[in-house]
Amino acid sequence: MNPVIAILGQLYPLTEETTHLFQTILKHKSARKGELLVRLGQVPENFYFIEKGLARVYYNRNDLDVTDYFAIDNQFIGALPALFYSKPSHKAIEVLEDSDIWYFSYAAFDALCEKHHDLERAARKMTIFGMIQGQQRIESIRFLSAKERYEELERLYPGITNRAPLKYIASYLGTTPVSLSRIRAGKQ
Questions:
Q1: In terms of DSSP bridges, do strands 46-61 and 64-72 run parallel, antiparallel, or are they unpaired?
Q2: pLDDT digit string, tens, across residues 28-40
Q3: What's the CA gap between 36 and 89, in Å, rounded?
Q4: Per the CB 3.0–4.6 Å rule, which of 108, 117, 144, 167 could disulfide with 25?
Q5: What is the average pLDDT across 91-119?
Q6: Cα–Cα distance, 97 to 171 (Å, whole number)
């Protein structure tokens, strides 16, 4: 079974008809390290699922490249909210290692949800999960030390510290590469 459909089906059971129709909008691609799935200023059309690989969402602030979040094996990623509002994105999505990716048009997905409420319910549960993750991220930035945020990163994205460049991990954690090196060496 397609991994995207399998994950959505775990959130809410999908009928055979819905599964078939959803498969018609799913597309697969192999992406190379360094490829941009969404560019800064682009109006995104697709939502992505990293079946195997690694990608990040980032933006520029005061001439700094800031990593907003990662997607690693079997996780979704998108340039939100530009995708939902069909507006130019102030965030980009970069593939950090050669990856197998599934993607689908958000407009086509939304149209399917209008007619197939089982898919709509699965999408709603996925949205709630994303909202909870976003809230946890905000709370970690506010209340956790850099070392605690690093430990949380390892829990949320197993193996990422050996797969993503440390400058992106430091940016995600809101620290410097030097401080991150100290944390990794156990000096903080």
A1: antiparallel
A2: 999 999 999 999 9
A3: 13
A4: 108
A5: 98
A6: 18
Give the burial class of 26: count Cβ atoms within 10 A of its Cβ; 0-12 exposed, 13-18 middle, 19 or more buried.
Answer: middle
* Beta-bridge partners for 104: 47
96 φ, ψ to 5°? -95, -15
CA–CA separation, 166 vs 164, rounded Å?
A: 6
Average pLDDT, the chain: 95
Q: Collapse the DSSP code of 22 into the 3-class scheme (helix H, G, I; strand E, B; otherwise coil) and give the result.
A: helix
3-state SS, 87-149, equals: CCCCCEEEEEEEEEEEEEEHHHHHHHHHHCHHHHHHHHHHHHHHHHHHHHHHHHHHHCCHHHH
Task: Report angle CA 163, 53, 92 to the nearest 5 degrees.
Answer: 90
Residue with the two structure tokens 């990623």: 77
| Residue 12: predicted pLDDT | 97
Tell me the pLDDT tens digit for each residue of 132-171. 999 999 999 999 999 999 999 999 899 999 999 999 999 9
Say what the pTM is.
0.93
Rounded to whole angstroms, how far apart are CA atoms 159 and 53?
A: 11
Does residue 36 contact residue 133 with C-beta atoms inside 8 Å? no
Q: How far apart are CA 122 and CA 88, in angstroms?
A: 27
